């Protein structure tokens, strides 16, 4: 007997999920709970295990260990029932290049066994929603990357899914197209859909995601709301400038309550009050002032800090 989802039942519930390839754990004991109606971001460096995790969640790859429930159903045992209610946009676009966007949408809809009248209505709505109507009858191979990405997302929405899984939805897109897609993703969330996405753009995660999980080497290392993670890991303000280790020592001698993050010659200092440090830096520089950037700490700083760039407490 399948359970009917209710407001409190998580849409995704993964417990102790591990995936081993040739004896190596690509995903290691992952626990993931995604409640309905939120946008959840899975973040991590290249090879962290994001795509592998998504593949297990939508049932094309079996976990080596652990349980996954989607809509309260075991994915391995109810793959069809789960798939009928979810939409997936893969990391690479998968579509028939020799056909038009409209035909791709129709073919995809028929795979889902959607009746012709309803399908025609959905295709028209999706072409309009993702603003691809004007190019709907052009062959896909003639479309730009941004339009192909929009088509990919339109295809994943053909079955009016309750859960949308997006693997790097905006990689390689220009800023205008990214903004357009963000607004579509927000619109889908506003309609009550649950969204799980991966991204390498921390600004995107910060804007879209209610919750994020940072994974590294297949293991979850941090989870929370983006703002909360920034508060927990760093101080609210950042000061960024080029500086040698020797200068750094002189500059920060005796300073406390700060976090430092160095990538090559670039030093980022996080503190409550970066103004004070800036004044010391300007004194150190004398008349020859170097360029320094003062800005609020962000999720990218947290990502760099927790995934391995050298970090020290002051
Ligand atoms: N079919 C496979 N066979 C063997 N190893 C695999 C397979 N699929 C993935 N891996 C390995 O699992 C690890 C995680 O890969 P995955 O594609 O999940 O990373 P990712 O976080 O999505 O990275 P990216 O940001 O580059 O997309 C990598 O070391 C990868 O080489
Ligand atoms: Mg990937």
Distance between the termini: 57 Å
CATH architecture term of the largest domain: 3-Layer(aba) Sandwich
Give a short account of the largest sheet: 6 strands, mixed
> How many helical stretches?
11
Ligand list: adenosine-5'-triphosphate, magnesium ion
Structural class: alpha/beta
Q: Could you report the average pLDDT, rounded to the nearest whole number?
A: 92
Write the layout of secondary structure elements.
Elements lengths: L11 E10 L2 E11 L4 E5 L6 H8 L7 E6 L2 E2 L4 H6 L1 E4 L11 H11 L4 H14 L15 H12 L6 E5 L7 H16 L3 E5 L3 H7 L2 E6 L2 E6 L1 H8 L3 E6 L2 H8 L5 E6 L2 E6 L2 H12 L6 E5 L2 H8 L4 E3 L1
Parallel strand pairs: 3-8, 3-9, 6-7, 7-8
Antiparallel strand pairs: 1-2, 1-4, 4-5, 9-10, 11-13, 11-14, 12-13, 12-15
The chain binds adenosine-5'-triphosphate and magnesium ion.
The site of adenosine-5'-triphosphate (ATP) has 11 residues, from helix 1.
Describe the structure.
The chain is an alpha/beta fold. The chain has 2 domains: 12-224, Rossmann fold (3-Layer(aba) Sandwich), CATH 3.40.50; 231-313, Alpha-Beta Plaits, CATH 3.30.70. The protein is 35% helix and 27% strand. The strands form 3 sheets. It has a 6-stranded mixed β-sheet, sandwiched between helices. A 5-stranded antiparallel β-sheet has the order 14-11-13-12-15, sandwiched between helices. The protein is globular and about 75 Å long. The structure holds adenosine-5'-triphosphate (ATP) and magnesium ion.
């Amino acid at each position: 007997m399948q359970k009917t989802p209710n407001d409190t039942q998580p849409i995704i519930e993964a417990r102790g999920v591990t995936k081993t390839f040739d004896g190596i754990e690509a995903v290691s004991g992952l626990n993931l709970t995604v409640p309905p109606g939120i946008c959840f971001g899975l973040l991590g460096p290249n090879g962290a295990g994001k795509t592998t995790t998504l593949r297990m969640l939508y049932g094309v790859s079996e976990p080596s260990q652990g349980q996954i429930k989607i809509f309260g159903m075991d994915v391995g045992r109810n793959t069809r029932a789960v798939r009928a209610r979810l939409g997936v946009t893969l990391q690479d676009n998968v579509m028939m290049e020799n056909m038009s966007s409209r035909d791709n949408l129709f073919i995809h809809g028929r795979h889902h066994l959607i009746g012709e009248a309803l399908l025609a209505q959905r295709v028209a709505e999706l072409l309009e929603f993702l603003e691809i109507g004007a190019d709907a009858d052009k062959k896909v191979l003639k479309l730009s990357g941004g339009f192909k990405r929009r088509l990919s997302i339109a295809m994943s929405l053909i079955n009016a899914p309750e859960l949308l899984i997006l693997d790097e939805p905006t990689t390689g897109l220009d800023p205008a197209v990214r903004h357009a897609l963000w607004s579509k993703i927000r619109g889908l969330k506003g309609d009550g859909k649950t969204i799980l996405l991966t991204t390498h753009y921390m600004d995107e995660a910060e804007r879209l995601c209610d919750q994020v999980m940072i994974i590294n080497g297949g293991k979850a290392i941090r989870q929370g709301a983006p703002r909360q993670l920034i508060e927990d890991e760093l101080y609210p303000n950042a000061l960024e400038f080029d500086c040698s280790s020797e200068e750094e020592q002189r500059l920060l001698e005796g300073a406390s309550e700060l976090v430092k993050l160095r990538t090559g010659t670039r030093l980022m200092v996080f503190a409550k009050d970066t103004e004070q440090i800036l004044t010391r830096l300007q004194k150190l520089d004398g008349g020859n002032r170097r360029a320094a950037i003062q800005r609020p700490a962000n999720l990218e700083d947290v990502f760099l800090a927790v995934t391995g760039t050298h970090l020290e407490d002051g």
